[in-house]
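FORM 12-B: Structure-to-Sequence Request
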């Protein structure tokens, strides 16, 4: 899974370059999670997960508090979680997760992003079967043997543990997210550079120069859509 980690780093680095866009997307996700359950992360696991992710992106506390306060105030806005699937240049595969209060607008924007950048939307299930939902953690301060021992003591059998330079990466089942994170925190891991539920491609592809350039434009166009929260793909973007 080492090559897949490169894609996660690439996506995170790209998002970090536009913090205002990242913050606005997190604000919406926090609002929706808080509104759908209790506005307390200790009793709302969906909200707790979003807040843990927000920490890895250094989302300011005032943005988090404002989104939760908005949910407490009983905001009337209603959002749907929708997933779109499609194909990019050279048959590359893309999954797009959205939060929207206007389904027609979102579908139109996502379809246009595909169409203008060498891709096309597929039907539900046309791409997702080639990806695995995965919990991913990345952190420093321990080696892979220490992490394995910690997880074994917690009776957690994860998919894989890798060590790249000084960073340890743990891949686990999605339903293990909170258990793995709790075990790692209990063992002294104070900060995660990545703590995500993501979709990892079972097989990655490399694109020739022109196709990769067009593919990157497609990903940029999708991530520029206000309603798009996350984009997953199967292209190896390299280091």
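FORM 12-B RESPONSE
SEQUENCE OUT:
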């Amino acid at each position: 899974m080492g090559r897949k980690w490169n894609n996660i780093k690439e996506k995170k680095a790209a998002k970090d370059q536009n913090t205002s866009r990242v913050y606005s997307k997190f604000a919406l996700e926090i609002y929706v999670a808080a509104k759908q359950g209790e506005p307390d992360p200790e009793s709302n696991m969906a909200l707790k997960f979003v807040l843990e992710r927000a920490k890895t992106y250094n989302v300011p506390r005032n943005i988090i508090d404002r989104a939760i306060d908005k949910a407490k105030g009983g905001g009337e806005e209603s959002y749907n979680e929708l997933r779109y699937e499609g194909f990019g240049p050279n048959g590359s595969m893309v999954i797009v997760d959205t939060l929207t209060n206007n389904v027609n607008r979102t579908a139109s924007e996502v379809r246009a992003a595909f169409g203008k950048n060498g891709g096309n939307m597929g039907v539900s299930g046309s791409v997702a079967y080639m990806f695995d939902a995965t919990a991913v953690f990345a952190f420093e301060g321990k080696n892979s043997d220490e992490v394995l021992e910690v997880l074994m003591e917690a009776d957690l059998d994860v998919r894989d543990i890798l060590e790249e330079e000084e960073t340890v990466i743990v891949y686990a089942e999605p339903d293990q997210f909170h258990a793995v994170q709790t075990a790692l925190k209990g063992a002294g891991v104070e900060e995660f550079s990545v703590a995500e539920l993501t979709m990892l491609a079972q097989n990655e592809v490399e694109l020739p120069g022109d196709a990769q350039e067009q593919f990157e434009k497609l990903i940029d166009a999708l991530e520029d859509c206000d309603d798009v929260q996350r984009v997953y793909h199967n292209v190896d973007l390299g280091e």
